Amino acid sequence: MAKILLVEDDPLVRDMLAQVLQKATHEVTAAADGEEAATILKTTHPDIMVTDIIMPKKSGITLISEVKNCHPEMEIIAISGGGRLDPIGYLDLSENLGASVSFEKPVDNTALLMAIDLLLQGKKKVKA
Amino acid sequence: MSQRMQDHFKKHCHAYLIAFIGFVVSLGLFYALQIQEDRYVLSIAQLGIETINNHIQAELALDEHLLKHVAIPENSEKLSNSSSMGSSIKTLIANYPQVLAIYKLDKYNKINAVQSNNKVYDYVSLLNIFIKQNLESLKTNTSTWTSTPITLTPQQTAFFMVLPIHRPGSSSYCIALIDARSLIQHKTELPGMVFEVYLNHQPITSTSVSEKNKSWLFEVSENYFGASWDLKAQEMTINLGILHLISKEAPLSWITFILGILISLLLARSTDLSELLKERTIILDKINQDLKNEIKSHTETEASKKNLEKALLQGQKLQAIGTLAGGIAHDFNNILYAIRGYVELAREEIPQEGITYTNLGKVLDATYRGQDLISQILTFSRRQHHEFIPLNLKAEISGALALLRPTVPQSVNIQFEAETEGKIMGNKTQIHQVIVNLINNAVDAMDDEGLIRIKLYSIQSDDLQGLKISPLKLNNYCKIEVSDTGHGMDQNTMDRIFEPFFTTKEVGKGTGLGLSTVHSIIKDHLGEILVSSQIGKGSTFTLFFPERILSEEESTHGQDFTR
């Protein structure tokens, strides 16, 4: 049972993930992009943020680096859809900047849910 | 002599030489034949004169002396003694200057001995004619003197006289050449010979010359040998001379001369032509060879250009595919993710034994296949990642510029400065693609006229900190600046310039893939690309490539492993 901030620009994925997380008994707040997420974070303190990396307006990386300063206790899970640039590089970078875990889309949701549970329990860095 | 004339002469010297030799030879032949003819003509003229004069005398009133010799008295012994013949003749000649020469003839009427006081060889030909003319009488009348009247005219100063020689058992004769002037002036008789002189058919002497006749003779002779030349005879002589000069024998020398000149000119011309031909052939051969070499190198250049174009195109295609794949991969992954997620959610709500559960399981399988496919495409497009070789940016840029230069308008000036060799790890074709794309964009931005400057530097990583590029692990970087004097870009354009399919060009003019390809390549090379621009002034693209770590061999021996 965690408060999760979901940041994902694709509506289908966002809706699907929200359902998946909610079905797993988590409280989900969804944001469509980094700016929305930043606004939400001003007023709430989620336990975990699940965020896409490549997004318009504010990239996930920037979001991560910003958030980490303001919400140091928040765990961050980064997911990425890949693309023309090396996804692995970006994920490595996001982990270097503060994400605890990173996944490549399409993500194995079971693994994602497991990661959330583990982070909740230990709030340690776990590699998925 | 002017330089041109000197050169002309040197070039045609063989021809001139042959022409000159030919001319000299022809001239020589001409003169030789002329001289021969002159002699002949002279002889003929002399004979002619004689003949003519013989005819003239009948027509013209000439003072003439008619010399007639009468037979030697039979008791004359002096000349008939054969044993003293020789000495007699010698004595005769020695004592009597009137006798210029004695010609002794053999039985074939050929001269076989000459005794003379002076050189009288000129008369030999006349003698032969004399002999021919009198052959019959010489043969038959050997026992008596001939009493042919000999007519003398002013020009004739000598005459031939036949002297029969009596020998026991045979008879022969010799011919004396008598100097008539001398004869008339001094004596009219020779031992054993009697001369009668007639004037106008009237005898003026008898067997001996009287004092009276002597003085008369002197008178006559003075008259005779004075100035009263017969003009007509002289005229005729001259005419005869000319006549003979243009007779059928005379032109021989002229013909020979002209023929000689023509032949030598022909020879000269043909030598000239053959030398010219040789020269031309050599020049043509050289030109031919040069052309062949040019064609060969041109063909080679064309071939290598085609290969490079092919490779570039291939690379560009792959890049395009990669870009496309990369572009859709993100969305595609999202789609696959969504499908999988929803299907899993759905499966959780239905009984596992039902057919629906199984069918949804098949949908999931399909998504796994989709995922594989996408990652295959992405792997394929990123495959070049691993085919990096040691490269030398300076050489690669120079090479690309060399190939580009002919395709770029002359009015576009391209300058390349390199401060370093630019040793990196990379893909040769891709680096070329980068340069080609950047240059082509610069040319388009400048509307075919302006300056493109490319600079290659080496910089330390510390210098990078001020710039907005991701921190990378390697120490030194190669920095390439490509700047143009084109119309520049605004901020909006600059923000989107590396987007695939983004283009500021008209429809059909640009694919929009160029710069996004460049961007991908640079990223693959673990580098960075930045753009700055000013509207109206121009744009600058700055590329960073990490320098490669030199292998031990390279750094110690300074060898260049680039290709």
Structure commentary:
The complex is a heterodimer of chains A (128) and B (563). With 128 residues, chain A is of the alpha/beta class. Chain A is 46% helix and 20% strand. Chain A has helices at residues 11-23, 34-43, 60-70, 87-97, 109-122; strands at 3-7, 27-31, 48-52, 75-80, 101-104. Chain A has a five-stranded parallel sheet, sandwiched between helices. In chain A, strand 4 (75-80), helix 4 (87-97) and strand 5 (101-104) form a beta-alpha-beta unit. In chain A, helix 3 (60-70) runs parallel beside helix 4. Chain A is globular, with a radius of gyration of 13 Å. In chain B, 26% of the residues are buried. Chain B has helices at 3-11, 13-59, 85-95, 123-133, 135-140, 180-185, 211-224, 231-245, 251-347, 355-381, 393-404, 428-445, 491-496, 514-524, 552-557; strands spanning 65-70, 99-105, 111-116, 150-152, 158-167, 170-179, 189-190, 193-199, 202-203, 389-392, 412-418, 423-426, 450-460, 476-484, 528-534, 538-546. Chain B contains 15 helices and 16 strands. In chain B, the strands form four sheets. In chain B, strands 1, 4, 7, 8 and 9 form a five-stranded antiparallel sheet that branches. Chain B has a five-stranded mixed sheet with strand order 11-13-14-16-15, with helices on one face. Chain B is rod-shaped and about 175 Å long. The model of chain B is unreliable at 37-87, 141-149, 166-170, 191-249 and 558-563 (pLDDT under 50). With 563 residues, chain B is α+β, with helices and mostly antiparallel strands. The chains are: A alpha/beta (128), B alpha+beta (563). At the A-B interface, helix 1 of A face helix 9, helix 10 and helix 14 of B.
Q: Which regions of chain A are unreliable across 5 or more consecutive residues at pLDDT < 50?
A: 124-128
- Give a count of the beta strands of chain B, DSSP E runs of length 2 or more: 16
Contiguous helical run count of chain A: 5
Mind describing the biggest β-sheet of chain A?
A: 5 strands, parallel
Mean pLDDT of chain B: 69
- In angstroms, what separates the terminal alpha carbons of chain B? 60 Å
SSE arrangement of chain A, N to C: EHEHEHEHEH
Share of β-strand residues of chain A:
15-25%
Largest sheet of chain B: 5 strands, antiparallel
Q: What structural class do the secondary elements of chain A suggest?
A: alpha/beta
> How much is the radius of gyration of chain B in Å?
63 Å
Quick one: overall form of chain B?
rod-shaped
Output the strand order for the largest sheet of chain A.
2-1-3-4-5
The biggest chain-chain interface is:
A-B, 22 and 30 residues
* Quaternary structure annotation: heterodimer
Number of helices of chain B: 15
Helix coverage percent of chain A: 40-55%
Radius of gyration over C-alpha positions of chain A, nearest whole angstrom? 13 Å
End-to-end distance of chain A: 20 Å
